[in-house]
Amino acid sequence: MAEKILVVDDEELIRRTVAKILKKSDFEVFLAADGYEAVAMAKEQTFDMVISDVRMPGIDGVETIRQIKEVQPEIYSIIITGYASEETPVQALKVGVNDYIFKPFEIDTFNHSVLRNIVNLRLTREKASLAKRLKENMITVIDTLATTLEARDPYTHGHSHRVGAYSCWIAEELTYSPDDLEILMHGGILHDIGKIAVREEVLNKPGRLTAEEYEHIKIHPTVGYNILKQINDLDALLPIVLSHHERIDGKGYPHGVAGQDIPRNARIAAIADTFDALTSNRPYRDGMPLEKAIAILESVKGTQLDADMVDIFVKKVRERGIIPVRDAQDLTRVTIS
Ligand SMILES: [Fe+2]
User: Fold this and answer.
1) What was the pLDDT predicted at 222?
2) Beta-carbon contacts of residue 4 (< 8 Å; ≥ 6 apart)
């Protein structure tokens, strides 16, 4: 697809000459006689590149590009200048101009500059689309791993997704960026992935575990960590997987880390994990009602769970209620811009 290039120059002869050169390279060319016209056009349609003269009546070329970039931040820009003033390059740099051409210029010089920037533009777009595909693949891997785990333990169906969703409720109050929220969500979904190495009869045992069984189940954070460590791009999720059973008083596992030394995302996921375990149904018991579960969270505040985070969670869960099982998957669809 031919790139759309907007040419801004107050001299008609230059506009026409430049348009002719660009059309030879099969670009789609649009012309503006001054900065105001160019900005107005950029508000109406998207261009891939703007090539502007610097000195024009009304607003100059640098200001024109600055205003165009306000509505089209991704646009590539080239400045044509006859004046090697000291100010222009500094101002152009500030607004993010990609290249300069000095007048008078040879056609080859002009073509070279345009084509080099078009190649950069295409590469940038290709990279962005590759990154998007990689991210989509990563999300598929995460969902598949979580589903694999839950297939072994049908009574905890949706648990991983609910832990991700509850964790994000807390993070919303902590002004997480969309990327950080996504990490927390995916970490919540995968927090127990190491349980694929836990023996089935231990995993699904109704009632109390023996000391040996408890020791066995305690391997899961480390196993999960070792599995995910092998997968590129999932590094950010590792603290949640490794440390979600650590306790504020240092009596947790696997490392007995205490207080703020436990990664924040792991402290958050621990609350979500505990709450969902209390409120969801098991083969041998029904889930607890909301207030009873809250009372338990309050009773372990500052010993097992992070007190400030529990306060945030309690406020949120009183507003929003327990996540019904059927909604858990939907709640994980956190839109990340
Ligand atoms: Fe766990």
Assistant:
1) 97
2) 27, 28, 30, 45, 46, 47, 48, 49
Indicate if 247 and 181 belong to the same structural domain: yes
Q: Give residue 281 CA to ligand 1 midpoint distance, Å.
A: 17
* Pairwise pLDDT comparison (89 vs 71), residue with the higher score: 71
User: How many independent structural domains does the chain possess?
Assistant: 2
> Distance from the CA of 136 to the center of ligand 1, in angstroms?
26
User: 207 alpha carbon to ligand 1 midpoint, in Å?
Assistant: 17
Q: Are residues 120 and 159 in the same domain?
A: no
- pLDDT at residue 260, rounded to an integer: 96
Q: Cα(217) to centroid of ligand 1, in Å?
A: 9
**Span from the CA of 105 to the centroid of ligand 1 (angstroms):** 67
- CA of 220 relative to ligand 1 center, distance in Å: 7
Query: Are residue 175 and residue 292 in the same domain, yes or no?
Result: yes
Distance between Cα 46 and ligand 1 center (Å): 49
Other Cβ atoms within 10 Å of 114 Cβ, number: 23
Range of the domain at 57: 4-126
Neighbours of 174 (CB within 10 A): 14
- C-alpha span between 164 and 186 (Å, rounded): 6
User: Among residues 243, 251, 259, 149, which one has the least CA distance to residue 204?
Assistant: 149
Q: Could you give the CA distance from residue 27 to residue 10 in angstroms, rounded to a whole number?
A: 21
Query: For residue range 244-255, what is the model confidence (pLDDT) as tens digits?
Result: 999 999 999 999
Which amino acid appears at position 104 of this protein? P
Q: How far apart are alpha carbons 163 and 275 in whole angstroms? A: 9
Token pair for 129 = 């689309």
Q: Residue 170 has which token pair?
A: 């807390």
Average pLDDT over residues 140-144: 82
> If you measure from the C-alpha of residue 192 to the centroid of ligand 1, how many angstroms do you get, rounded to a whole number?
5
For residue 119, the CA-to-ligand 1 centroid distance in Å is 49
